[in-house]
């Protein structure tokens, strides 16, 4: 059995994501939403609500949760899990912050084309 090393992709500066806001990282497998909390933690989830596919990047960030704009499910940013009584999970991507820069981890199953982070002008520096 072989364990592959995670692939860390630089996506943007932390400040490219507004506090209590979001940015979208386009990916050929589907958009990834980046969330920044009031305490400057950054989380990344597939930009697709586990309920009926609402864009989580359009939701409201509070604490370490986001409220989906369509039907107000609360999604835990740390796990991607819907908060009870709702049940479901948005795909989560590990995030690392190093010297104010945000990196996402992709495994081999996530290879694809990565676009630029929206609006802020921050660029992804590599394709995985
Ligand atoms: S699509 Fe998100 S709560 Fe319904």
TrEMBL record:
Transmembrane segments: none
InterPro entries according to UniProt: Rieske-like_NirD (IPR012748), Rieske_2Fe-2S (IPR017941), Rieske_2Fe-2S_sf (IPR036922)
Keywords linked to the UniProt accession: 2Fe-2S, Iron, Iron-sulfur, Metal-binding, Nitrate assimilation, Oxidoreductase
Domain (Rieske) ranges: 9-104
Protein name per the record: Nitrite reductase small subunit NirD
Organism, scientific name: Pandoraea fibrosis
């Amino acid at each position: 059995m072989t364990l592959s090393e995670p692939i860390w992709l630089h996506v943007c500066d932390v400040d490219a994501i507004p506090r209590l806001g979001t940015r979208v990282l386009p990916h050929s497998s589907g958009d990834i939403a980046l969330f920044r909390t009031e305490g400057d933690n950054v989380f990344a989830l597939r930009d697709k609500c586990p309920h009926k596919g609402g864009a989580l990047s359009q939701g409201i960030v509070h604490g370490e949760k986001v409220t989906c704009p369509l039907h107000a499910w609360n999604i835990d940013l740390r796990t991607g899990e819907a908060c009870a009584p709702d049940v479901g999970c948005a795909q989560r991507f590990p995030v690392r912050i190093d010297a104010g820069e945000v990196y996402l981890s992709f495994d081999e199953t996530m290879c694809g084309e990565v676009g630029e982070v929206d609006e802020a002008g921050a660029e992804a520096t590599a394709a995985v």
